[in-house]
Design a protein that fits this description.
The protein is α/β, with parallel strands linked by helices. It has 14 helices and ten strands. The protein is elongated, with a radius of gyration of 26 Å.
């Protein structure tokens, strides 16, 4: 069964301008735990005392999920993470030639010695700690470097190797750059050494392929996939939590343990406190995700919603809705009038036709028509006009 690591509180807080207080982080973590997330990555305590406080509070909150911290490959940083009472530790260090020589000015062998030293230290401090090693920018690093570092890390006590697509480089349709091949190759090479760590993937969305790459990694046998709420993260962010869960469910992954009814409340909370709006067209959680507008669509879904939906909103605790505007037809107006309690007036076909014409005129202002607030006024206005016309003509 695939495991989900949510990094809204770590990667998500690397979105420019985003800050979640320790109190808000605890609420987000509680939402994630209710959904059934396996690992919640809260942040790097060496960055700020507020992050350390948040990790401590969440670690002591009695959640079912494992609570994790992110750390540079430094013993003092690891100790700060361990002091927060974590279940999960993520350590990262690059093994790409460019970073080793230009940034760190060390050899691969020296880098591996450093990685092993830090992992040995962490394992000695807490025997049951779940430890992940990430070769930063994994997929653009020489595969032989990744294998060498990963092998040494597992022998030193690592449970998880994370394949980090740090720059959104992979492509499921590229023969040399698919994360599917990277997962397969790394697993096979480690298995040949009788090493069997869990394989995690961390996919960035720089080219809009994060979800596709995550699903490609799932198909290859990855054990853990990283996500965040709204896909928040550095630059274009990472895999969106809701989109991944829905797609895994559609691909046959047993989803009964994911309580998807909590997703919308979680997204609304994160949106409010990150000060980033959920785009109306955002899949799964956007306002328009289950809203039908075009006349042909509305007429069809009035008979059977699945004629224009491949996903039942009920699994998310939601309902389909309709919108009124330039693209609306007669059926949409009838349904909307029933929605606001004016069903008796739908028997007046001329009135419904006049309401539709007025809706099309109003729609040219270029903003949505509020069914609950504006439609009653439109109905009353058109009804009065029709009654006055009858009186004058009579």
């Amino acid at each position: 069964m695939i495991k989900i690591l949510d990094s809204t509180l770590r990667e998500g807080e690397q979105t420019p301008g985003v800050y979640f207080s320790p109190e808000k982080k605890l609420i987000i973590a509680q939402f994630l735990d209710q959904i059934g997330i396996d690992i919640i990555e809260v942040g790097n305590p060496a960055v700020d005392s507020d992050i350390a406080l948040a990790i401590n509070r969440i670690s002591q909150a009695g959640l079912k999920a494992k609570i994790g911290a992110h750390s540079l490959c430094k013993i003092d940083n690891v100790q700060k993470a361990l002091d927060c009472g974590i279940d999960f530790l993520g350590v990262f260090f690059s093994v790409s030639k460019k970073r080793l020589y230009q940034d760190y000015n060390i050899s691969l062998e020296a880098a591996i010695d450093k990685i092993v030293e830090v992992i040995n230290f962490a394992r000695e401090q807490k025997n049951d700690l779940l430890i992940r090693y990430t070769p930063e920018d994994t997929v653009r690093s020489p595969i032989e470097n990744v294998i060498a570092a990963a092998s040494a890390a597992v022998k030193a006590g690592v449970n998880i190797i994370s394949i980090a697509d740090t720059t959104g480089y992979t492509n499921p349709f590229h023969p040399q750059r698919s994360i599917y091949n990277f997962v397969k190759t790394l697993k096979e090479e480690l298995n040949q050494q009788d090493l069997h760590p869990q394989i995690e993937v961390h996919c960035h969305n720089d080219k809009g392929l994060a979800l596709a790459n995550a699903l490609d990694a799932y198909r290859a046998g990855a054990d853990i996939i990283d996500v965040s709420v709204m896909g928040l993260g550095e630059r274009a962010g990472i895999v969106d939590l809701g989109e991944l869960l829905i797609n895994l469910r559609e691909m046959g992954e047993e989803g009964n343990h994911w309580q998807l009814g909590y997703l919308q409340d979680l997204y609304n909370f994160v949106s409010e406190h990150s000060h980033i709006s959920i785009p109306p067209h955002q899949p799964i959680t956007g306002k328009n995700a289950f809203t039908h507008y075009a006349g042909v669509h509305v007429k069809a879904v009035a008979k059977d919603e699945m004629l224009y939906q491949s996903l039942n909103p009920q699994i998310l605790g939601k309902k389909s809705s309709l919108a009124l505007g330039m693209q609306s037809g007669y059926t949409a107006v009838e349904l909307a009038m029933k929605q606001i309690g004016r069903e008796e007036l739908t028997k007046n076909k001329d009135l419904v036709a006049k309401i539709l014409l007025e809706i099309k005129v109003i729609a040219k202002r270029g903003t949505p028509i509020d069914i609950e607030k504006e439609l009653p006024e439109i109905v009353d206005r058109c009804n009065i006009k029709q009654l006055m016309t009858k009186m004058i003509s009579g």
